[in-house]
Amino acid sequence: MTFGSISGVRIPDSKIARELTQLIRDTESDLLFHHSIRVYFWGALTGSRTGLSFDPELLYTAAMFHDIGLSAHYENSQLRFEVDGANAARDFLRGRGISESDIETVWNAVALHTTPGIPEYMRPEIALVQAGAGMDVAGRGYDQFTDAQREAVIAAFPREADFKHGIIDAFYQGMKHRPDSTFGTFNDDVLAFKDPNFRRIDMCSIILASNWNS
């Protein structure tokens, strides 16, 4: 995929980037595919604005893989969907000349993107994937982007007419068969919203029901 720059940010033009773009294009729905590209742009624009030094190719790889675990390919998985995506990114990068250190960065960026309070203190690529996902899904940091930046990203990679409900449904479809995997994240909010029969796991009940006497 070739595309011009937005405020100096552009999609990396490398063999790896082209291969992974095609892989995600062939695997994900239009909604998740365009969402993933926007996550890259929001993350990269955030990094540029805040002066973070990041590797665009690593950031792009993590952004593109961050929701692949929600796709139909993982309909039988019981892992957290974030771990499925992180493992897929790791498998893709191995054998392509990427160092294990960089692969670990991408793995962490994908695996931790729904775990607030931690990624922002890690390597820039890890922090920026979470920032980009938060912007595109929940509007976190919306006012820190200029009108021109927001309009340019959306013009190039449009949000669906009802993206808000569409992304909630994509989350639900990717997690409804593995409800226990949502424990400890805000992913259980999605199941509670979509399924009136879903019951959250209560950590206090787990502690009180343990085999310890006191």
What does this protein structure show overall?
The protein has 214 residues and is an all-alpha fold. The chain contains 10 helices and no strands. The protein has helices at 15-27, 30-50, 56-65, 81-93, 100-111, 124-138, 147-156, 163-175, 187-194, 203-208. α1 runs parallel beside α3. It is globular. The N and C termini lie far apart (60 Å). The mean pLDDT is 96.
In short:
The chain is mostly helical.
User: How many separate helices?
Assistant: 10
Oligomer: single chain
Q: Please count the beta strands (DSSP E, at least 2 residues each).
A: 0
What is the mean predicted local confidence, pLDDT? Answer: 96
How far the N terminus sits from the C terminus, by CA atoms, comes to 60 Å
H-E order: HHHHHHHHHH
Give the uncertain stretches in residue-range form. Answer: none
Task: Identify the overall geometry.
Answer: globular
What's the gyration radius in Å?
18 Å
User: Strand count, sense and closure of the main sheet?
Assistant: none
Structural class: mainly alpha
Strand content bin: under 5%
Range of helix content: 55-70%
